[in-house]
Amino acid sequence: MADAIDATIVRRWVREAARSIGEQRQHLTDLDAAIGDADHGVNMDRGFRAAVDRVDALAADASPGAILRTVGAAVMSSVGGASGPLWGMAFRRAGQQLGDDVTLDGPALAGAFDQIVQAMRGLGKAEVGDKTMLDALVPAAETFRARIEGGDALPDALTAACRAAEVGVQATIPLQARKGRASYLGERSVGHQDPGATSAALILRALEAALAADPA
């Protein structure tokens, strides 16, 4: 397992995220049917399949940052609803943060995660507790940075971040939605798991899987 992330791992992350979201497409749709428009699974599946196609078309020497910027453009142009602009801007900001560095260590990845969170906060005007993807992403980013600064290896910090995201997903169930389509339901949104937080946790687990698959 690698202690740093290079372009090969980032490409694998995109493919694994697309595979996982495709596999969970119906589950995401079912979650969204309860509190949204029942299109989250379809939209995210379409967006990440488009991202794979665009990333596969990049030059072989494309940097991790360039790959993430390409993912952002693909998602923004092909995912409907709120998720497209949010994930599109998040990946683009993360890619800009990384620049053209060819490898990412723990602090660099922590910076990219911070940019993802800041982009979504800025565009979506949501915070933890609003029953959105930030309920998964904020604890994940905070946990990852704390573990890296505490001396954990990158893979261990990423595993801890994924667990924090999944705890955050479960924490959305008793919440009343305050943002997005689900907020229109008021108290009827209570008792349902947020689909956006769920797909966010899947995307993070996809990075963990991509990193674990590296023989380095």
Q: Care to describe what's here?
A:
By secondary structure, the protein is mainly α. It has a single domain, classed as Serine Threonine Protein Phosphatase 5, Tetratricopeptide repeat, CATH 1.25.40. The chain has nine helices and two strands, in the order βαααααβαααα. It has a two-stranded antiparallel ribbon. The longest helix is centred in the middle third of the chain and has 19 residues. The chain is globular and about 50 Å long. The chain starts with a strand and ends with a helix. The mean pLDDT is 93.
What is the domain tally? Answer: 1
Distance between the termini: 5 Å
Low-pLDDT runs: none
Q: At the first level of CATH, what is the class?
A: Mainly Alpha
Strand percentage lies at under 5%
Instruction: Work out the number of β strands.
Output: 2
What's this entry about, in short?
This protein is 68% helix and 2% strand. It has helices at residues 7-23, 25-35, 40-56, 64-78, 83-98, 106-124, 134-149, 154-171, 195-212, and strands at residues 5-6, 103-104.
Break the fold down into its secondary structure elements and pairings:
Layout: E1 5-6, H1 7-23, H2 25-35, H3 40-56, H4 64-78, H5 83-98, E2 103-104, H6 106-124, H7 134-149, H8 154-171, H9 195-212
Antiparallel strand pairs: 1-2
Helix pairs in contact: 1-3, 1-4, 1-9, 2-3, 2-9, 3-4, 4-5, 5-6, 6-7, 7-8, 7-9, 8-9
